[in-house]
Automatic annotation (TrEMBL):
This is Dynamin. SUPFAM superfamilies: P-loop containing nucleoside triphosphate hydrolases (SSF52540). It holds the Pfam family Dynamin_N. GO terms for molecular function: GTP binding. Residues 37-276 form the Dynamin-type G domain. Gene3D superfamilies: P-loop containing nucleotide triphosphate hydrolases. InterPro entries: Dynamin_N, G_DYNAMIN_dom, P-loop_NTPase, TRAFAC_Dynamin-like_GTPase.
Length: 467
C-alpha cells in the first residue's frame, strides 16, 4: 500500500476512535496523528542510570545542551526535534507551557533542582537545528532506570508506549547486568527497532573491549532470541569533546560515526514503514481495548434488568474470591521480601565480622608506616587509606550481593506478577463470558522491575581524625 493511502487510513481511524476514548488516550492519539502527518517518529535513548545517555545525546547534537553529572540526574523526559533556531519549552502537568533559556533546562529536568518533580513538569521540548533532527527524528532523553530515585524509573516506564525506535545504552562497566536484561525485555515489545550502543569504550584497551563485546552480544542474543544484533562501541564523552573542541580526529576515534551512519541508513530505508507500523499498532492496541469496553457497555444496556443484576451479583461474588487471592498473593509477596531483607542483613553482619578486623589491620599498618609525619598529613593519609579499603571491599561485596538479591527478587517478583496477570486475565474472561462478548486476549506485561541496586556512600561523614 502506498504511504499516503496508509497514512490517510490510519488518520481516519484516529478521528473515529478519538471521541470514544479517555482523555489520556486522546492525547496519545493526537501525538500519533501529529507524528504520522509530519512523518516523524520518537527515537528514544534508553538504559540504566549512569550509562551516559545525556552525554550521548549531547554528542549527537554537537554541544553540551542537556545537563549531565556523575550522580543520577535526569528526572524528566526531554524531547528534541528540528527547529531553525534553538527554543526550549517546559510543558507542565496542568497544561501550561513556559518558554525558558537553554541554560535553565537543568532547573526542570534534574533531580537536584526538581526533586520528585515537585514543579509538576510533564516534559521539556527542545527545538534544535542539529542535522540529525532534520530527518524527522524526535530524539528523546529519558531518566535512567534502576537508580535510587524510583520516580525516575516510573517516568521512563510510562513513556514506553510512545517509543517507535530506541537506542539502548550499555557500558563496559559492567557490560550488561541482570537489571538491564529485565528492563530490555520490558522495552522490546514496544519498539520497532533497537540500536545497541556500548558506551565508555575509552575505559578499556582493545583486548578487553573485544571480550566485553562478546559477553554483551552473547547475553543479548540469549535474552532476545535473535542472532542479528549489531552493537556500536563508542565513547560519547570523547565524541562530545571532539565536537565542542573542533577536533575531528577525536570524533573519529570516538567511534560515533559508525552509529550515525547506521542511523542515516535506517532513516533512508526504513523510517516511513516504521512510522506507519508503529502508528497502526498503537491505534489497533487502543482500539482493541476500547471495543471491549464499548461492547461490555452495550451488552449491559440491552440485558434485562433482572438478568443483568444476577450477572452483576455473580461477577461480584467471583470478583471478591479473586480479590482475596490477590490479597493473599500480596501477603506472600511481602513475606518473600521480608525474608530477602533478612538474608541481606545476615550477609551484612557476616561481612562486618569478616572485614572489620582486616580494615583495622590495614589502617594500623598505614599508621605505623606514617606515624612520623605531621598530624594533618597523617590524618589525610589514614582517611585516604580508609576510603580505598572500603571501596575495594564494598565494591566486591556489592557485586556479589546484587547478583544474589536480584536472582531471589526476580524469582519472587515473577511468581507474584504471574499470579496478578492470571487474576486480571480471569476477571476479563469472566466479564466476557457473563455478558457473552467475544474476548481477544490481551498481552499482559509484567511491570514489576528491580528499581534500585545496593549502594553505599563514603562522603558526608566526619574525617577519620579530627585534629
Amino acid at each position: 500500500m502506498h504511504f499516503g493511502v496508509a497514512q490517510e487510513k490510519i488518520t481516519q481511524a484516529i478521528a473515529t476512535l478519538a471521541p470514544m476514548v479517555k482523555e489520556q488516550d486522546r492525547e496519545m492519539l493526537s501525538e500519533v496523528e501529529r507524528k504520522l502527518k509530519e512523518n516523524k517518529f520518537n527515537l528514544v535513548v534508553l538504559g540504566q542510570f549512569k550509562r551516559g545517555k545525556t552525554t550521548f545525546i549531547n554528542a549527537l547534537l554537537g554541544e553540551k545542551l542537556l545537563p549531565s553529572a556523575i550522580l543520577p540526574l535526569t528526572s524528566i523526559v526531554t524531547t528534541l526535534e528540528y527547529g531553525p533556531q534553538m527554543e526550549v519549552e517546559v510543558h507542565f502537568l496542568d497544561g501550561q507551557v513556559k518558554k525558558i533559556e537553554p541554560q535553565n533546562i537543568r532547573l526542570y529536568v534534574t533531580e537536584r533542582e526538581n526533586p520528585k518533580n515537585e514543579k509538576g513538569v510533564k516534559y521539556v521540548r527542545v527545538l534544535h537545528p542539529a542535522s540529525i533532527l532534520k530527518k524527522g527524528i524526535i530524539l528523546v532523553d529519558t531518566p535512567g532506570v534502576g537508580s535510587l530515585y524510583e520516580n525516575n524509573t516510573d517516568v521512563t516506564y510510562g513513556f514506553l508506549p510512545r517509543v517507535d525506535a530506541g537506542v539502548f545504552l550499555l557500558t563496559v562497566d559492567p557490560p550488561l547486568s541482570k537489571e538491564e536484561i529485565a528492563f530490555l525485555k520490558d522495552v522490546y515489545p514496544h519498539v520497532e527497532r533497537i540500536f545497541f550502543v556500548l558506551n565508555k569504550v575509552d575505559y578499556v584497551d582493545s583486548d578487553d573491549l573485544q571480550e566485553v563485546m562478546d559477553f554483551a552480544l552473547g547475553n543479548l542474543k540469549e535474552a532476545l532470541g535473535s542472532n542479528h544484533i549489531p552493537i556500536y562501541p563508542l565513547s560519547a564523552k570523547m565524541a562530545l569533546e571532539g565536537r565542542t573542541d573542533g577536533d575531528e580526529g577525536k570524533v573519529v576515534k570516538s567511534g560515533i560515526a559508525d552509529l550515525e551512519e547506521a542511523l542515516e541508513d535506517f532513516l533512508l530505508k526504513e523510517k516511513g514503514s516504521i512510522v506507519l507500523r508503529s502508528s497502526a499498532n498503537k491505534v489497533l492496541s487502543l482500539l482493541s481495548t476500547s471495543l471491549f469496553q464499548v461492547e461490555l457497555e452495550i451488552k449491559a444496556a440491552t440485558t434485562p434488568l433482572e438478568e443483568l443484576e444476577e450477572k452483576i451479583e455473580r461477577f461480584r461474588v467471583i470478583k471478591e474470591e479473586i480479590s482475596q487471592e490477590r490479597r493473599d498473593s500480596e501477603f506472600l509477596f511481602k513475606g518473600g521480601i521480608d525474608s530477602l531483607i533478612k538474608i541481606v542483613n545476615m550477609d551484612m553482619e557476616r561481612f562486618q565480622t569478616q572485614k572489620i578486623p582486616k580494615i583495622y589491620a590495614r589502617l594500623l599498618e598505614t599508621f605505623q608506616e606514617n606515624k612520623h609525619r605531621g598530624s594533618l598529613e597523617l590524618s589525610k593519609l589514614l582517611d585516604q587509606a580508609m576510603k580505598e579499603i572500603l571501596v575495594r571491599e564494598f565494591d566486591q561485596m556489592v557485586i556479589q550481593e546484587n547478583e544474589k538479591v536480584n536472582a531471589e527478587y526476580s524469582r519472587i517478583a515473577r511468581r507474584f506478577a504471574d499470579k496478578v496477570n492470571d487474576i486480571i486475565d480471569r476477571l476479563m474472561v469472566l466479564a466476557a463470558e457473563l455478558f457473552e462478548i467475544p474476548l481477544e486476549r490481551f498481552q499482559v506485561e509484567e511491570t514489576i522491575t528491580e528499581e534500585s541496586s545496593l549502594w553505599y556512600k563514603l562522603e558526608d561523614r566526619p574525617k577519620l581524625l579530627d585534629l
